[in-house]
Design a protein that fits this description.
Elements: E1 6-9, H1 13-24, E2 29-32, E3 56-59, H2 66-76, H3 80-87, E4 89-90, E5 95-98, H4 100-113, E6 117-120, E7 135-137, H5 145-155, E8 160-166, E9 169-171, E10 181-182, E11 198-203, H6 205-217, H7 239-244, E12 271-277, E13 284-287, H8 296-303, E14 314-316, E15 319-325, H9 328-331, E16 337-338, E17 341-346, H10 356-374, H11 387-396, H12 435-462
Parallel strand pairs: 1-2, 1-7, 2-6, 7-17
Antiparallel strand pairs: 3-5, 4-5, 8-15, 9-13, 9-14, 10-11, 11-12, 12-13, 16-17
Helix pairs in contact: 1-10, 2-10, 2-12
Length: 463
Amino acid sequence: MTVQPIHVIGGGLAGGEAAWQIARAGVPVVLHEMRPERGTEAHVTDGLAELVCSNSFRSDDAEHNAVGLLHAEMRRLDSLIMATGDAHRLPAGGALAVDREGFSAQVTARLEAEPLIEIERREVAGLPPEDWDSVIIATGPLTSPALAEAIHDLTGADALAFFDAIAPIVHKESIDFETAWFQSRYDKAGPGGDGADYINCPLDEAGYEAFIDALLAGDATEFRDWERDTPYFEGCLPIEVMAARGRETLRYGPMKPVGLTDPRTGQRAHAVVQLRQDNALGTLYNMVGFQTKLKYGAQADIFRAIPGLEKAEFARLGGLHRNTFLNSPELLDGALRLKAQPRLRFAGQITGVEGYVESAAIGLLAGRYAAAERLDRALAPPPATTAHGALLNHITGGHLPGDRIEPGPRSFQPMNVNFGLFPPIATPEGKRVPKKARKPALAARALADLDAWMTQTAAAAAE
């Protein structure tokens, strides 16, 4: 009996992961990617799973950090994105940073080599054809206007939108190491690192104040009329927006000097700019947390005033693009299907998760849901106690209800995975777990519950 293919629109992290999971379940899939036929404002290659912002998957600590826990869960669930990320790991302290070119190339090669995956390079303009009875839309933050308009017309509800900014990348050889030095915060050595994984550029108080003045006076990109009321995502604010919130904001954010000692003085600097390795050759470093909407000329002038970067050569300056995401709790069901047309599922950043790994995780779940449905099998949702379940609940439930004045889930905003999304945990006696032990306890519970869910899912599939 011939199994009809599932269509996945979008060859980013979510779409690539969804296609991989569908094929691993034995179901054929057609993966549609519009590049290079049609480009976007942020992509520069035609590779699948291109990382357009940072090259970091953030913390890999599965015991104390929710995104590290999500990494661990995805590895257990045979994630293509995590396996490839691990294969292209770069030194980054306790974080998982990857060589972006090698990562994209390997994801592309593995998807192209999978017999059950057909890759079609063209834009799907508007809603998918009616005869595509199972579709995953994983078009990410840069959904083509034609498709976005079709989704709007279908749902009758406005998609939400926010701006996402890109940090500059610097050629390592142009950094002055008479001033800058290598050190991870608190000398923490992550996998593949040695405790000196970041380049640090120190600022004294006068230098920091001058830097803030320059940011606030810098020439920024003008918004178009339709962009003016679009909010930023709080986890990826441009540095000049952070500076405008208070002169000390950056010193307690991406420029915090704690855990770092300037070897020239033996003291902690007033503020520090950190750069993290961006490619396997170690020739490129990105400025951590320095996403910006300043114009290119202003960026070059302001950033070259940072000690150690006076002669910096930039492989890429910062930029800004508009992201779009759905009001998912109102529009999607618990299996990520569009309530108005259940043949359509959504995955990735367009659903309202934020971050590379979170997007891929929702792609993983969408792919598994679609494959199970095609094979006429029931798939229970992952427990809410797991990182995957917590994200799914964030998208499809977990929000304050509306009221007569403001209908709909009024609290829904893009979200990185975090332990605040997990159900509380108590001791066997029903008492509150002590604060220091809470995150490890939540992580241990999550992995145990995920293992149980995987066992139950495998048993149901074998029946």
